[in-house]
Amino acid sequence: MKNNLFIYNTLTRKKEEFKPLNPKHVGLYVCGPTVYGDPHLGHTRPAITFDILFRYLKHSDYKVRYVRNITDVGHLESDGDTGEDKIAKKARLEELEPMEVVQYYTDRYHSYMDQLNVQKPSIEPRASGHIIEQLQIVEDILAKGLAYESNGSVYFDVEAYNKDHHYGELSGRNIEDLLSTTRELDGQSEKRNSFDFALWKKAAPEHIMRWPSRFSEGFPGWHLECSAMSARYLGTEFDIHGGGMDLLFPHHECEIAQSTVCNGHTPAHYWMHNNMITIDGQKMGKSLGNFITLEQMFSGEHEKLEQAYSPMTVRFFIMQAHYRSTLDFSNEALQASQKGLDRLLEAFGKLDQLTASDASTFSVQELKDKCYAALDDDINTPILIAHLFDAVKNINSMLAEKATLTSSDLSELKALMQNMVVDILGLSAAESNSSEGNDELLSETINLLLNLRIDAKANKDWGTADKIRNELQALGVEIKDTKDGFDWSIK
RNA sequence: GGUUCCUUGGCCGAGCGGUUAGGCACUGGUCUGCAAAACCAGGUACGGCGGUUCGAGUCCGCCAGGAACCUCCA
């Protein structure tokens, strides 16, 4: 299947037609989490955004290699490059081996991603497993004269790089701005310029995570891992690089500078950045401490949460906004998403009950074209969802015998809904309503009661009929009367 | 301070110069024993002030308010 995908490229600030380097293959690299804390709502944004891209590319018959890293080394605590490694700090506090912390939070991250129905990337490399590759890049940049050694650490020489290249091309900055706006921080005496960034850092005595190198016992600079791992698994030139907008500068800018020195060109053709999730109008983030973890979202145990929200509700909530817009958290918005999702999945589940007619009263082809057009337009999931609600309306109209489809149109509709709802958006009915665990006995019991209610209704015994309905509802069984009987589900 | 971006109906959220976005909530109707669900119908929004244009949430300028990045952050 051919698509006509356009994606917004941060590099050019325009929507561009997506043309992969190799006609049938796509290389996709996305910055993954730093595993020193529990995943929160903010982490779902890139995970879900690029999950949909991944799914859509595969749906379009590309062979996709999706690489999403785990950062388990090298992130420094505040105060520029003088702080201590985040993971090492956490480890000391909890008296754990650093890798124990990494393992724990990596497992947690995976578990929550599974619940959100985020597909696993093709490769999930760890920074700590690629120290050699990172050191090779350090050597390469040093050899090309664009880095310097200082007191056992190695720094990238931004000023020298900027003579032949534009440091800031991705984030729209220039070196003069950076000079005038960078603050004076302590411990920067090792650097020639405040905007230089570390390629290798000598480890302080208390620093636990360290590796030997010819410069010092130390650890790689943060920006290096993505350059090293993307090159290793996708090549020095690949299609798409994604991540959160907050990584645009300096992280991705530095990545570009490093890779450009080593390979002579930018690593990725398309740079995609998802926007932030906000809470009370402010970015939800670790440093601000205003985040809600996924554990809290799913359990409802947080002061800002009026109730628990299922993973599918969270997923749907994320998709109802375009990935490049901020999305504000609120209970009202989540509750609206939950209801909308229920309605969508309810209709989806009823597709099998539809029967064909001689004629079609609405155009499935048109619906299909609109759905693909929405996806092709920079993965516009809110528009896609709007079209899916048109489908919901049509499905319900058919159930009410107010609309019809020919048998070929009907199978088209079923295929389309399967493709869009399940394959691409990754929504699953099983996750949404907890109808699991309603075993045979329970089902038969409820059926028995509802059949008794039918009898009561036939006898115009409204008291008994309403009692059965109300008490079942109080127990969480949702009852819908239909033309030829009843329909129920467990809430 | 520098750079970039945002401000849409009760709420959330699309929109990229000219036709109803959509969801949730609300109101009326149909259906129902009554409900629920579903269907039909309804409200006509675009921060303020100018400008460009036959025509502007949509382009330009100014003003007001808010945010992100400039330090780790998805």
Walkthrough of the structure:
The chain is of the alpha/beta class. It folds into three domains: 6-274, Rossmann fold; 278-432, Isoleucyl-tRNA Synthetase, Domain 1; 440-490, no CATH class. The chain is 45% helix and 14% strand. It has helices at residues 41-59, 86-94, 98-115, 131-143, 158-164, 175-181, 224-234, 248-263, 294-299, 311-319, 331-349, 364-376, 381-399, 407-424, 429-432, 440-458, 462-474, and strands at residues 6-9, 14-17, 25-30, 63-68, 147-150, 153-156, 197-202, 218-220, 238-244, 268-274, 277-279, 282-283, 327-329, 477-482, 485-490. The chain has a four-stranded parallel sheet with strand order 4-3-9-10, with helices on both faces. A four-stranded antiparallel sheet has the order 5-6-7-8, with helices on one face. Residues 77-81 and 431-435 have low confidence and may be disordered. The structure holds one RNA strand of 74 nucleotides.
Highest CATH level, the class of the largest domain: Alpha Beta
Number of helices: 17
Oligomer: single chain
Briefly note the structural class of the backbone: alpha/beta
How many beta-strand runs? 15
**Proportion in β-strands:** 5-15%
What summary fits the major beta sheet? 4 strands, parallel
Q: What separation lies between the terminal Cα atoms? A: 39 Å
- Low-pLDDT parts are 77-81, 431-435
Q: Give the overall average pLDDT.
A: 90
The strand order across the widest sheet is: 4-3-9-10
- Radius of gyration, whole Å: 27 Å
CATH homologous superfamily (4th level) name of the largest domain: HUPs
**Outline, from the CA principal axes?**
elongated
Task: Briefly note the CATH topology name of the largest domain.
Answer: Rossmann fold
Count up the domains: 3
CATH architecture of the largest domain: 3-Layer(aba) Sandwich
* Helical proportion, percent range: 40-55%
